[in-house]
Design a protein that fits this description.
The strands form six sheets. This protein has a seven-stranded mixed sheet with strand order 2-5-4-3-1-7-6, sandwiched between helices. Strands 11, 12, 13, 14, 15, 17 and 18 form a seven-stranded mixed sheet that branches. Helix content is about 35%, strand content about 25%. The protein has about 550 residues and is an alpha+beta fold. The protein has 18 helices and 23 strands. It is elongated.
Length: about 550
């Protein structure tokens, strides 16, 4: 119970919904939404508080068809008060309680008294009852710590003689499918069954046999979930959602010798497939606790571990306190693996900015990309971003603009650490280089356009420049490595009309070897650039006198 109290908010919402809301969620990976005519102002306040405390906010549901009591429980992932005063509620993880709970088990927040069993109002705020904590304990415990591979292996071995030919074909075909993902329609075709409904029926019979032998109550919503996990957003070529075979079932089949164990190289296996995108969520105070910990390879929780592959991209989303939005992206460099009681993935961060000061895409930008309900407010890290939304993010003009200079946000009051400063310097230098590439299109002197070797060289050095000067495109030149080294060490400079100045210590042979000559000059000049160059020229002349 103690672990549940650490993650569950002490207040919750009770409401009544139509049976259609329940049915639609059952067909949509237990996620859904509905609209109430009343403004849930207080519920919205509480929801925001749960985000700050990083706790789960629960929704207790009664079915309007009979209102027998609390039958369903779900996690609130979004509350939005609409212009007409109604409220849109998004939820996830909908599942039935083991037993229907009378409304008298709920304690009203407004009065502190138990709710009447004849209570008919569709909305009430309550103190979170014990049965919610008990339910959460079971979920946190992941049912139990039994050896699921052994359970599936022993059960499959026992029912092997009575598994029909069609059921066996579906099971083995599921294992052999790319990513072990197949739609019910495709499963039926593999087994030779006539139609999707027939395939679902026979695969369900196999699942029921397994549950009976394993001593587990069969799933109430879809028997197939005994064998595989439903991924409605993982569409096949025909646009159908797919079932992904459990890893434990796959391993059991391998140990039984029913299939030949796959030996697949991640990089080769993924080279020809469409890359997916996943959303990694972070709030201040959550691991990694400090911004500087976001460097290089990081390990993140990944809800969609059965879908993710090496090479897939990830986006870092800051939640909790404002500002919210995307502050980085990277790539998965190691297949998902399990550590303790959670699935994780290793990620290499390619592009990042300090989310307390700037963002690549703000929450406002993201909400314009027509995402599924609650995507940007999900409290789960590692959910899959629909392909069309990910494509919109990649092609966003705002992203391209902000990747040069991320959207500035109001600074936080938190003290700055040396590690944070180092990361900000690295990010600032990257932004500075991108700005110079946009301005010069090539080397400022030679015009060389091979960007991989060009260096962003500050005229007034980074260590001496103000914050504004450090990112000012007029305070920089884009140079080839030899010119950059000479310029940085004041062996060359440029005069008031952009002509090169060469140190007297560099002879004609050295000039030839270095690829420089007195006729060189900057390809363009302007008043702001020349004002910085004057400072560099003065320093160059002072050093020449001392040489």
């Amino acid at each position: 119970m103690e672990s549940a109290q650490n993650v569950v908010f002490d207040k919750c919402v009770y409401t009544i919904v139509s049976s259609d809301v329940i049915k639609n969620a059952a067909n949509n990976d237990s996620e859904g939404h509905f609209t109430e005519g009343k403004s849930w102002v207080k519920a919205l306040e509480l929801f925001k508080q749960t985000e700050l405390e990083d706790k789960l906010f629960f929704l207790l549901l009664a079915d309007a068809a009979h209102i027998r009591g609390v039958e369903w429980i779900a996690q609130v992932v979004g509350i939005e008060i609409l212009p007409d005063g109604s409220t849109k509620i998004s939820f996830a993880g909908l599942h039935p309680l083991e037993e229907i709970r009378p409304r008298s088990d709920l304690q009203l927040l407004s009065t502190g008294e138990a709710m009447s069993n004849s209570y008919i109002r569709p909305y009430a705020l309550c103190l979170t009852p014990d049965f919610v904590y008990e339910d959460t304990v079971k979920i946190l415990a992941n049912i139990d710590d039994r050896d699921w591979v052994a359970l599936y292996r022993d059960a499959l071995q026992k029912i092997g003689p009575v598994i029909s030919d069609g059921q066996r074909k579906m099971l083995l075909g599921h294992y052999l499918a790319p990513d072990m993902a197949l739609s019910v329609k495709r499963l039926a075709e593999i087994a030779g069954y006539d139609g999707q409904r027939s395939g679902s029926l026979h695969y369900g019979k196999l699942a029921r046999k397994l549950s009976e032998v394993m001593g587990i109550d069969p799933p109430t919503q879809d028997l197939t979930s005994m064998i595989a996990e439903w991924h409605g957003d993982q569409k096949d070529e025909n646009g159908h959602g797919q079932w992904v075979l459990y890893d434990e079932v796959a391993q059991a089949l391998e140990e039984l010798g029913w299939v030949t164990k796959k030996a697949v190289n991640d990089e080769a296996a993924n080279s020809n497939r469409t890359k997916q995108s996943f959303l990694l969520t972070w709030k201040e105070g959550n691991p990694p606790y400090k911004f500087e910990d976001f460097q290089e390879i990081e390990t993140w929780r990944l809800r969609s571990h059965k879908q993710a592959k090496v090479g897939d991209e990830v986006y870092l989303l800051k939640q909790g306190k404002e500002p919210r939005g995307i502050f980085g992206r990277g790539v998965i460099i190691k297949s998902p693996y399990q550590t303790e009681d959670k699935w994780v993935v290793d990620v290499k961060i390619d592009e990042i900015t300090n989310p307390s000061k700037s963002l690549f895409l703000t929450l406002e930008n993201l909400c314009q990309m027509h995402p599924p309900e609650g995507l940007w407010f999900s409290q789960s890290s590692g959910i899959k971003i629909p392909d069309d939304v990910a494509e919109a993010m990649r092609n966003s003009k705002q992203w391209k603009i902000n990747s040069i200079t991320p959207v500035a946000v109001e600074p936080q009051d938190a003290p700055e650490t040396s590690g944070t400063r180092e990361v900000e310097i690295r990010i600032g230098q990257q932004q500075f280089r991108e700005s110079l590439l946009q301005y010069w299109k090539g080397c400022s002197v030679t015009g060389c356009s091979f960007q991989e070797v060009l260096i962003a060289s500050h005229i007034v050095p980074w260590s001496e420049a103000s914050d504004a000067e450090r990112l000012n495109v007029s305070n920089g030149l884009l140079l080839t490595p030899n010119l950059d080294k000479l310029f940085d060490n004041y062996f060359i400079s440029f005069n008031s009309i952009g002509e090169i100045l060469i140190s007297k210590t560099i002879g004609s042979k050295a000039m030839h070897d270095l690829g420089i000559n007195p006729s060189m000059k900057l390809r363009r000049t302007d008043e702001k650039l020349l004002s910085y160059l004057q400072k560099h020229e003065r320093a160059f002349l002072e050093k020449e006198q001392a040489r």
